[in-house]
Amino acid sequence: MSIGVHSASINEQFNKLFSSILIEQQKIDHIKAADEDKKELLSSKLKEYEALKGRGFFFPFMASGRGHGPFVELIDGSIKYDLINGIGVNLLGHSHPIYIKANLEAATSDTMMCGNLLSYQEPYEVSKMLLESVSKSHLKHFWFSCSGSFAGDTALKILWQKKAPNYRLIAFQKSFAGRSIAMQDVTYNQAYREGMPKTIPVDHVPHYNYNNPEKAIEETIAALDNLIAQNGNVYCALTIEVIQGEAGFIYGTKEYYKAICEWAKKNNIYVWIDEVQSFARTTELFAYQMFELDQYVDVVTIGKVLQGAGTFYTEELNPKAGLIAGTFNGSIASLNAAKATIRYLKEGNFYGEKGRIKDLEQKFKAKFKELSEGSCKGKIPYFGGIGTMLSFQVGDSSVETTNKFMKKLFDNGIITFSAGKEPTRVRFLISLPILDEHIEEIFKILEKTIHETII
Ligand SMILES: Cc1ncc(COP(=O)(O)O)c(C=O)c1O
Q: What is the pLDDT of residues 17-43, one digit of tens each?
Protein backbone atom coordinates (compact mmCIF):
# COMPACT_ATOMS: atom_id res chain seq x y z
CA MET A 1 0.00 0.00 0.00
CA SER A 2 1.35 3.39 -0.91
CA ILE A 3 -0.88 5.77 1.02
CA GLY A 4 -2.64 6.34 4.34
CA VAL A 5 -2.00 4.41 7.53
CA HIS A 6 0.04 1.20 7.64
CA SER A 7 0.69 -1.46 10.25
CA ALA A 8 1.26 -5.18 10.18
CA SER A 9 -2.31 -5.69 11.35
CA ILE A 10 -3.81 -3.39 8.70
CA ASN A 11 -1.77 -5.09 5.98
CA GLU A 12 -2.86 -8.54 7.11
CA GLN A 13 -6.54 -7.57 7.27
CA PHE A 14 -6.27 -5.70 3.96
CA ASN A 15 -5.00 -8.84 2.23
CA LYS A 16 -7.71 -11.00 3.79
CA LEU A 17 -10.44 -8.55 2.93
CA PHE A 18 -9.14 -8.18 -0.64
CA SER A 19 -9.21 -11.97 -1.17
CA SER A 20 -12.60 -12.42 0.49
CA ILE A 21 -14.21 -9.68 -1.64
CA LEU A 22 -12.68 -11.06 -4.83
CA ILE A 23 -13.77 -14.63 -4.03
CA GLU A 24 -17.35 -13.46 -3.42
CA GLN A 25 -17.47 -11.30 -6.57
CA GLN A 26 -16.05 -14.12 -8.70
CA LYS A 27 -19.28 -16.05 -8.05
CA ILE A 28 -21.02 -13.69 -10.53
CA ASP A 29 -19.80 -15.65 -13.53
CA HIS A 30 -22.79 -16.44 -15.76
CA ILE A 31 -26.02 -14.83 -16.90
CA LYS A 32 -29.15 -15.62 -14.96
CA ALA A 33 -32.82 -14.62 -14.91
CA ALA A 34 -34.31 -12.53 -12.09
CA ASP A 35 -35.34 -14.19 -8.83
CA GLU A 36 -39.17 -14.33 -8.70
CA ASP A 37 -39.29 -12.86 -5.19
CA LYS A 38 -37.03 -9.89 -6.11
CA LYS A 39 -38.75 -8.73 -9.32
CA GLU A 40 -41.12 -6.51 -7.37
CA LEU A 41 -38.18 -4.95 -5.48
CA LEU A 42 -36.55 -3.77 -8.71
CA SER A 43 -39.70 -2.33 -10.23
CA SER A 44 -40.81 -0.55 -7.05
CA LYS A 45 -37.37 0.97 -6.34
CA LEU A 46 -37.03 2.13 -9.93
CA LYS A 47 -40.51 3.63 -9.89
CA GLU A 48 -39.69 5.54 -6.73
CA TYR A 49 -36.33 6.67 -8.11
CA GLU A 50 -37.92 7.75 -11.39
CA ALA A 51 -40.32 9.93 -9.42
CA LEU A 52 -37.39 11.46 -7.48
CA LYS A 53 -35.43 12.05 -10.66
CA GLY A 54 -38.37 13.34 -12.60
CA ARG A 55 -37.88 11.03 -15.55
CA GLY A 56 -37.82 7.38 -16.49
CA PHE A 57 -34.87 5.10 -17.15
CA PHE A 58 -34.26 3.53 -20.56
CA PHE A 59 -33.52 0.11 -19.04
CA PRO A 60 -35.05 -1.34 -15.84
CA PHE A 61 -31.57 -1.42 -14.29
CA MET A 62 -30.34 -0.95 -10.75
CA ALA A 63 -27.05 -2.65 -9.87
CA SER A 64 -26.64 -4.69 -6.70
CA GLY A 65 -22.92 -3.87 -6.44
CA ARG A 66 -22.06 -7.43 -7.38
CA GLY A 67 -20.38 -8.21 -10.68
CA HIS A 68 -17.30 -9.81 -12.13
CA GLY A 69 -15.54 -9.40 -15.46
CA PRO A 70 -18.22 -8.80 -18.11
CA PHE A 71 -21.06 -9.78 -15.74
CA VAL A 72 -23.18 -7.45 -13.62
CA GLU A 73 -25.93 -8.32 -11.16
CA LEU A 74 -29.14 -6.29 -10.75
CA ILE A 75 -31.07 -5.97 -7.51
CA ASP A 76 -33.66 -8.45 -8.83
CA GLY A 77 -30.92 -11.11 -8.80
CA SER A 78 -30.61 -11.22 -12.59
CA ILE A 79 -27.09 -11.28 -14.07
CA LYS A 80 -26.32 -9.82 -17.49
CA TYR A 81 -23.42 -9.27 -19.86
CA ASP A 82 -22.43 -5.64 -19.49
CA LEU A 83 -21.32 -4.56 -22.96
CA ILE A 84 -21.67 -0.83 -22.33
CA ASN A 85 -19.74 -0.49 -19.06
CA GLY A 86 -21.11 2.77 -17.72
CA ILE A 87 -20.80 4.17 -21.29
CA GLY A 88 -17.19 3.21 -21.56
CA VAL A 89 -15.91 3.58 -18.00
CA ASN A 90 -15.18 0.01 -16.86
CA LEU A 91 -12.63 -1.12 -19.42
CA LEU A 92 -11.14 -3.53 -16.89
CA GLY A 93 -14.51 -5.16 -16.21
CA HIS A 94 -16.44 -5.49 -12.96
CA SER A 95 -14.59 -6.16 -9.67
CA HIS A 96 -11.17 -6.00 -11.28
CA PRO A 97 -8.53 -6.50 -8.55
CA ILE A 98 -7.34 -2.96 -9.32
CA TYR A 99 -10.75 -1.52 -8.45
CA ILE A 100 -11.10 -3.56 -5.25
CA LYS A 101 -7.58 -2.64 -4.14
CA ALA A 102 -8.01 1.05 -5.01
CA ASN A 103 -11.12 1.24 -2.85
CA LEU A 104 -9.49 -0.56 0.07
CA GLU A 105 -6.35 1.57 -0.14
CA ALA A 106 -8.47 4.70 -0.12
CA ALA A 107 -9.99 3.51 3.16
CA THR A 108 -6.55 3.80 4.79
CA SER A 109 -6.40 7.49 3.85
CA ASP A 110 -7.82 10.34 5.91
CA THR A 111 -10.24 12.00 3.47
CA MET A 112 -12.46 11.11 0.54
CA MET A 113 -11.47 13.68 -2.07
CA CYS A 114 -8.22 15.25 -3.28
CA GLY A 115 -8.24 18.96 -3.88
CA ASN A 116 -6.26 21.46 -5.91
CA LEU A 117 -5.20 23.66 -3.00
CA LEU A 118 -3.71 21.04 -0.65
CA SER A 119 -2.49 18.18 -2.77
CA TYR A 120 -1.90 14.50 -2.09
CA GLN A 121 0.54 12.04 -3.66
CA GLU A 122 -2.09 10.41 -5.89
CA PRO A 123 -2.74 13.25 -8.37
CA TYR A 124 1.01 13.86 -8.60
CA GLU A 125 1.69 10.21 -9.45
CA VAL A 126 -1.18 9.99 -11.94
CA SER A 127 -0.06 13.21 -13.69
CA LYS A 128 3.50 11.90 -13.93
CA MET A 129 2.40 8.60 -15.48
CA LEU A 130 0.01 10.28 -17.88
CA LEU A 131 2.60 12.79 -19.07
CA GLU A 132 5.19 10.02 -19.52
CA SER A 133 2.65 8.33 -21.80
CA VAL A 134 2.47 11.34 -24.14
CA SER A 135 6.22 12.01 -24.25
CA LYS A 136 6.36 11.89 -28.06
CA SER A 137 4.06 14.91 -28.24
CA HIS A 138 4.54 18.53 -27.13
CA LEU A 139 2.05 18.07 -24.27
CA LYS A 140 3.70 19.11 -21.00
CA HIS A 141 0.93 19.61 -18.42
CA PHE A 142 -2.16 17.87 -17.12
CA TRP A 143 -5.05 19.43 -15.20
CA PHE A 144 -7.66 17.25 -13.42
CA SER A 145 -11.41 17.73 -13.74
CA CYS A 146 -14.26 15.69 -12.36
CA SER A 147 -15.97 15.09 -15.72
CA GLY A 148 -15.16 14.94 -19.41
CA SER A 149 -17.35 18.00 -19.98
CA PHE A 150 -15.41 20.06 -17.45
CA ALA A 151 -12.13 18.88 -18.99
CA GLY A 152 -13.53 20.32 -22.23
CA ASP A 153 -14.41 23.62 -20.55
CA THR A 154 -10.84 23.83 -19.20
CA ALA A 155 -9.47 23.16 -22.69
CA LEU A 156 -11.59 25.92 -24.16
CA LYS A 157 -10.64 28.47 -21.49
CA ILE A 158 -6.94 27.80 -22.05
CA LEU A 159 -7.34 28.15 -25.82
CA TRP A 160 -9.46 31.30 -25.54
CA GLN A 161 -7.00 33.02 -23.24
CA LYS A 162 -4.14 32.32 -25.61
CA LYS A 163 -6.00 33.35 -28.75
CA ALA A 164 -8.21 36.19 -27.43
CA PRO A 165 -10.18 37.72 -29.11
CA ASN A 166 -10.26 34.82 -31.62
CA TYR A 167 -12.89 32.83 -29.74
CA ARG A 168 -14.50 30.87 -32.61
CA LEU A 169 -14.07 27.12 -32.52
CA ILE A 170 -14.26 24.54 -35.30
CA ALA A 171 -15.80 21.15 -34.52
CA PHE A 172 -17.01 18.23 -36.62
CA GLN A 173 -20.56 17.36 -37.53
CA LYS A 174 -21.96 14.44 -35.47
CA SER A 175 -19.41 14.96 -32.67
CA PHE A 176 -20.33 14.87 -28.99
CA ALA A 177 -18.47 16.97 -26.42
CA GLY A 178 -20.52 16.78 -23.23
CA ARG A 179 -23.27 18.52 -21.30
CA SER A 180 -21.78 21.70 -19.84
CA ILE A 181 -23.07 25.01 -21.20
CA ALA A 182 -20.02 25.35 -23.43
CA MET A 183 -19.77 21.70 -24.48
CA GLN A 184 -23.45 21.50 -25.51
CA ASP A 185 -22.61 24.06 -28.18
CA VAL A 186 -19.57 22.07 -29.33
CA THR A 187 -21.84 18.99 -29.58
CA TYR A 188 -23.47 18.74 -33.00
CA ASN A 189 -26.87 17.28 -32.03
CA GLN A 190 -29.28 20.23 -31.71
CA ALA A 191 -31.78 18.10 -29.76
CA TYR A 192 -29.36 18.17 -26.81
CA ARG A 193 -29.68 21.97 -26.47
CA GLU A 194 -33.34 22.58 -27.02
CA GLY A 195 -34.39 25.90 -25.46
CA MET A 196 -30.78 26.87 -24.74
CA PRO A 197 -29.29 30.20 -25.81
CA LYS A 198 -26.28 29.84 -28.09
CA THR A 199 -23.40 30.76 -25.84
CA ILE A 200 -20.20 30.06 -27.71
CA PRO A 201 -19.37 30.42 -31.42
CA VAL A 202 -18.80 27.00 -33.00
CA ASP A 203 -18.75 26.06 -36.69
CA HIS A 204 -19.28 22.39 -37.59
CA VAL A 205 -17.62 20.94 -40.68
CA PRO A 206 -18.29 17.54 -42.35
CA HIS A 207 -16.32 14.64 -40.92
CA TYR A 208 -14.74 11.71 -42.82
CA ASN A 209 -17.07 10.66 -45.63
CA TYR A 210 -17.29 6.85 -45.70
CA ASN A 211 -19.37 6.97 -48.87
CA ASN A 212 -16.67 8.82 -50.74
CA PRO A 213 -13.36 8.15 -48.96
CA GLU A 214 -11.20 9.32 -51.89
CA LYS A 215 -12.76 12.76 -51.62
CA ALA A 216 -12.98 12.88 -47.78
CA ILE A 217 -9.89 15.05 -47.27
CA GLU A 218 -10.82 17.37 -50.10
CA GLU A 219 -14.39 17.83 -48.80
CA THR A 220 -13.36 18.64 -45.24
CA ILE A 221 -10.51 20.94 -46.27
CA ALA A 222 -12.87 22.78 -48.65
CA ALA A 223 -15.33 23.28 -45.77
CA LEU A 224 -12.50 24.52 -43.52
CA ASP A 225 -11.19 26.92 -46.17
CA ASN A 226 -14.70 28.15 -46.68
CA LEU A 227 -15.04 29.04 -42.99
CA ILE A 228 -11.96 31.24 -43.14
CA ALA A 229 -13.11 32.78 -46.42
CA GLN A 230 -16.47 33.63 -44.83
CA ASN A 231 -15.46 34.71 -41.34
CA GLY A 232 -11.75 35.50 -41.57
CA ASN A 233 -9.27 33.65 -39.40
CA VAL A 234 -11.07 34.24 -36.10
CA TYR A 235 -10.56 30.69 -34.82
CA CYS A 236 -8.77 29.56 -31.66
CA ALA A 237 -8.86 25.81 -32.28
CA LEU A 238 -10.12 22.83 -34.19
CA THR A 239 -11.53 20.14 -31.90
CA ILE A 240 -11.55 16.56 -33.16
CA GLU A 241 -13.33 13.63 -31.54
CA VAL A 242 -11.16 11.17 -33.46
CA ILE A 243 -13.51 8.23 -32.84
CA GLN A 244 -17.01 9.71 -32.80
CA GLY A 245 -18.79 7.68 -30.11
CA GLU A 246 -22.28 9.17 -30.10
CA ALA A 247 -22.28 8.91 -33.90
CA GLY A 248 -21.76 5.14 -33.73
CA PHE A 249 -17.95 5.01 -33.96
CA ILE A 250 -17.18 6.99 -37.06
CA TYR A 251 -13.50 7.72 -37.64
CA GLY A 252 -11.15 8.81 -40.38
CA THR A 253 -7.81 7.50 -41.57
CA LYS A 254 -4.29 8.54 -40.54
CA GLU A 255 -3.93 10.46 -43.80
CA TYR A 256 -7.25 12.22 -43.27
CA TYR A 257 -6.46 13.41 -39.75
CA LYS A 258 -2.90 14.36 -40.68
CA ALA A 259 -4.19 16.50 -43.56
CA ILE A 260 -6.70 18.21 -41.25
CA CYS A 261 -4.03 18.85 -38.61
CA GLU A 262 -1.63 20.19 -41.25
CA TRP A 263 -4.36 22.59 -42.37
CA ALA A 264 -4.86 23.78 -38.77
CA LYS A 265 -1.12 24.33 -38.24
CA LYS A 266 -0.82 26.20 -41.52
CA ASN A 267 -3.60 28.52 -40.37
CA ASN A 268 -2.22 28.98 -36.85
CA ILE A 269 -5.21 27.18 -35.31
CA TYR A 270 -4.61 24.91 -32.30
CA VAL A 271 -5.49 21.20 -32.44
CA TRP A 272 -7.58 19.84 -29.55
CA ILE A 273 -8.29 16.09 -29.54
CA ASP A 274 -11.27 14.91 -27.47
CA GLU A 275 -10.42 11.43 -26.16
CA VAL A 276 -12.91 11.33 -23.32
CA GLN A 277 -14.40 8.12 -24.73
CA SER A 278 -11.55 6.77 -26.87
CA PHE A 279 -8.77 7.02 -24.25
CA ALA A 280 -7.31 3.53 -23.64
CA ARG A 281 -9.88 1.83 -25.90
CA THR A 282 -8.12 1.60 -29.28
CA THR A 283 -4.84 -0.02 -30.31
CA GLU A 284 -2.78 2.63 -28.51
CA LEU A 285 -3.31 4.20 -25.10
CA PHE A 286 -4.45 7.35 -26.92
CA ALA A 287 -6.31 7.17 -30.23
CA TYR A 288 -4.31 10.18 -31.47
CA GLN A 289 -1.20 7.99 -31.11
CA MET A 290 -2.82 5.31 -33.25
CA PHE A 291 -3.41 7.97 -35.92
CA GLU A 292 0.22 9.21 -35.46
CA LEU A 293 -0.82 12.75 -34.61
CA ASP A 294 1.76 13.18 -31.82
CA GLN A 295 3.48 16.17 -33.41
CA TYR A 296 0.19 18.07 -33.94
CA VAL A 297 -1.71 17.83 -30.65
CA ASP A 298 -1.86 21.00 -28.55
CA VAL A 299 -4.64 19.96 -26.18
CA VAL A 300 -6.05 16.51 -25.35
CA THR A 301 -9.00 15.81 -23.07
CA ILE A 302 -9.58 12.41 -21.44
CA GLY A 303 -12.08 10.86 -19.01
CA LYS A 304 -14.07 7.66 -18.48
CA VAL A 305 -11.51 4.78 -18.38
CA LEU A 306 -9.25 7.02 -16.28
CA GLN A 307 -11.91 6.91 -13.53
CA GLY A 308 -11.50 10.68 -13.59
CA ALA A 309 -10.97 13.31 -16.26
CA GLY A 310 -8.56 16.02 -17.28
CA THR A 311 -6.86 18.18 -19.88
CA PHE A 312 -3.35 17.91 -21.33
CA TYR A 313 -1.77 21.03 -22.84
CA THR A 314 1.55 22.31 -24.11
CA GLU A 315 3.93 24.73 -22.40
CA GLU A 316 2.87 27.41 -24.85
CA LEU A 317 -0.75 27.05 -23.72
CA ASN A 318 -0.05 27.05 -19.98
CA PRO A 319 -2.62 29.63 -18.81
CA LYS A 320 -2.08 32.62 -16.51
CA ALA A 321 -2.61 32.07 -12.79
CA GLY A 322 -6.25 32.34 -11.82
CA LEU A 323 -7.82 30.98 -15.00
CA ILE A 324 -8.20 27.34 -14.03
CA ALA A 325 -8.93 26.13 -10.52
CA GLY A 326 -11.62 24.22 -8.66
CA THR A 327 -12.07 22.30 -5.43
CA PHE A 328 -11.60 18.72 -6.56
CA ASN A 329 -9.03 16.64 -8.47
CA GLY A 330 -11.05 13.48 -7.88
CA SER A 331 -11.66 10.93 -5.12
CA ILE A 332 -8.68 9.16 -3.55
CA ALA A 333 -10.11 5.80 -4.66
CA SER A 334 -10.54 7.00 -8.28
CA LEU A 335 -7.05 8.46 -8.46
CA ASN A 336 -5.64 5.22 -7.00
CA ALA A 337 -7.50 3.26 -9.64
CA ALA A 338 -6.31 5.67 -12.37
CA LYS A 339 -2.69 5.13 -11.40
CA ALA A 340 -2.97 1.35 -11.29
CA THR A 341 -5.02 1.24 -14.50
CA ILE A 342 -2.45 3.19 -16.52
CA ARG A 343 0.39 1.03 -15.19
CA TYR A 344 -1.53 -2.19 -15.91
CA LEU A 345 -2.46 -1.11 -19.44
CA LYS A 346 1.06 0.06 -20.28
CA GLU A 347 2.83 -2.97 -18.84
CA GLY A 348 0.44 -5.62 -20.18
CA ASN A 349 0.05 -6.81 -23.74
CA PHE A 350 -2.96 -4.66 -24.61
CA TYR A 351 -1.86 -2.33 -27.40
CA GLY A 352 -0.39 -2.67 -30.88
CA GLU A 353 -1.39 -4.94 -33.72
CA LYS A 354 -0.77 -8.07 -31.59
CA GLY A 355 -2.30 -6.76 -28.40
CA ARG A 356 -5.41 -7.93 -26.57
CA ILE A 357 -7.52 -4.99 -27.79
CA LYS A 358 -6.87 -5.75 -31.47
CA ASP A 359 -7.55 -9.42 -30.76
CA LEU A 360 -10.95 -8.62 -29.21
CA GLU A 361 -11.82 -6.31 -32.12
CA GLN A 362 -11.01 -9.05 -34.65
CA LYS A 363 -12.93 -11.70 -32.72
CA PHE A 364 -16.06 -9.54 -32.50
CA LYS A 365 -15.85 -8.52 -36.16
CA ALA A 366 -15.39 -12.14 -37.28
CA LYS A 367 -18.52 -13.14 -35.36
CA PHE A 368 -20.50 -10.21 -36.81
CA LYS A 369 -19.41 -11.25 -40.29
CA GLU A 370 -20.47 -14.84 -39.69
CA LEU A 371 -23.87 -13.74 -38.37
CA SER A 372 -24.55 -11.12 -41.05
CA GLU A 373 -23.66 -13.54 -43.86
CA GLY A 374 -25.33 -16.52 -42.20
CA SER A 375 -28.59 -16.89 -40.33
CA CYS A 376 -29.09 -13.10 -39.99
CA LYS A 377 -28.41 -12.28 -43.64
CA GLY A 378 -30.05 -8.97 -44.57
CA LYS A 379 -30.78 -8.13 -40.93
CA ILE A 380 -27.41 -6.60 -39.96
CA PRO A 381 -26.82 -3.92 -42.61
CA TYR A 382 -23.64 -2.68 -40.91
CA PHE A 383 -21.04 -3.65 -38.32
CA GLY A 384 -17.76 -1.94 -37.55
CA GLY A 385 -15.82 0.06 -34.99
CA ILE A 386 -12.32 -0.09 -33.61
CA GLY A 387 -10.66 -1.68 -30.59
CA THR A 388 -13.11 -2.10 -27.74
CA MET A 389 -15.57 0.33 -29.41
CA LEU A 390 -17.83 -1.66 -31.73
CA SER A 391 -21.22 -1.00 -33.29
CA PHE A 392 -23.77 -2.54 -35.63
CA GLN A 393 -27.14 -1.80 -37.16
CA VAL A 394 -30.23 -3.98 -37.16
CA GLY A 395 -33.17 -4.08 -39.56
CA ASP A 396 -34.07 -0.66 -40.97
CA SER A 397 -31.64 1.01 -38.47
CA SER A 398 -34.38 3.35 -37.23
CA VAL A 399 -34.48 4.62 -33.64
CA GLU A 400 -37.68 2.60 -33.02
CA THR A 401 -36.35 -0.72 -34.36
CA THR A 402 -33.01 -0.29 -32.58
CA ASN A 403 -34.64 0.57 -29.24
CA LYS A 404 -37.00 -2.40 -29.51
CA PHE A 405 -34.04 -4.66 -30.29
CA MET A 406 -31.91 -3.32 -27.41
CA LYS A 407 -34.73 -3.75 -24.89
CA LYS A 408 -35.28 -7.35 -25.96
CA LEU A 409 -31.53 -7.92 -25.85
CA PHE A 410 -31.55 -6.58 -22.28
CA ASP A 411 -34.29 -9.06 -21.34
CA ASN A 412 -32.24 -11.81 -22.99
CA GLY A 413 -29.18 -10.94 -20.88
CA ILE A 414 -27.05 -8.32 -22.69
CA ILE A 415 -26.78 -4.61 -21.90
CA THR A 416 -25.83 -2.27 -24.76
CA PHE A 417 -26.73 1.27 -25.77
CA SER A 418 -27.53 3.09 -28.97
CA ALA A 419 -25.62 5.74 -30.90
CA GLY A 420 -26.47 8.01 -33.79
CA LYS A 421 -29.60 8.79 -35.71
CA GLU A 422 -30.34 7.92 -39.31
CA PRO A 423 -28.80 5.39 -39.05
CA THR A 424 -29.07 4.42 -35.39
CA ARG A 425 -26.48 1.91 -34.25
CA VAL A 426 -26.19 -0.46 -31.32
CA ARG A 427 -23.04 0.38 -29.42
CA PHE A 428 -20.70 -1.98 -27.56
CA LEU A 429 -18.06 -0.56 -25.22
CA ILE A 430 -16.61 -3.88 -24.18
CA SER A 431 -14.34 -4.73 -21.28
CA LEU A 432 -11.03 -6.58 -21.45
CA PRO A 433 -11.91 -9.75 -19.47
CA ILE A 434 -14.34 -11.08 -22.11
CA LEU A 435 -13.33 -14.67 -22.90
CA ASP A 436 -13.90 -16.65 -26.11
CA GLU A 437 -16.68 -18.65 -24.44
CA HIS A 438 -18.39 -15.36 -23.51
CA ILE A 439 -18.16 -14.14 -27.11
CA GLU A 440 -19.76 -17.40 -28.30
CA GLU A 441 -22.65 -16.98 -25.88
CA ILE A 442 -23.05 -13.25 -26.64
CA PHE A 443 -23.43 -13.97 -30.36
CA LYS A 444 -25.92 -16.80 -29.73
CA ILE A 445 -28.05 -14.33 -27.75
CA LEU A 446 -27.65 -11.69 -30.46
CA GLU A 447 -28.78 -14.17 -33.11
CA LYS A 448 -31.81 -15.22 -31.08
CA THR A 449 -32.76 -11.59 -30.36
CA ILE A 450 -32.42 -10.57 -34.01
CA HIS A 451 -34.75 -13.40 -35.02
CA GLU A 452 -37.21 -12.40 -32.30
CA THR A 453 -37.33 -8.70 -33.20
CA ILE A 454 -36.26 -8.13 -36.82
CA ILE A 455 -38.72 -9.42 -39.39
C1 LIG B 1 -16.18 12.34 -26.72
C2 LIG B 1 -16.78 12.81 -25.43
N3 LIG B 1 -16.44 14.02 -24.95
C4 LIG B 1 -16.93 14.47 -23.78
C5 LIG B 1 -17.83 13.72 -23.04
C6 LIG B 1 -18.37 14.27 -21.75
O7 LIG B 1 -17.91 13.53 -20.67
P8 LIG B 1 -18.70 13.51 -19.28
O9 LIG B 1 -19.99 12.79 -19.54
O10 LIG B 1 -17.79 12.80 -18.34
O11 LIG B 1 -18.93 14.94 -18.89
C12 LIG B 1 -18.20 12.45 -23.50
C13 LIG B 1 -19.16 11.62 -22.75
O14 LIG B 1 -19.76 10.70 -23.22
C15 LIG B 1 -17.68 11.99 -24.73
O16 LIG B 1 -18.00 10.79 -25.23
A: 999 999 999 999 999 999 999 999 999
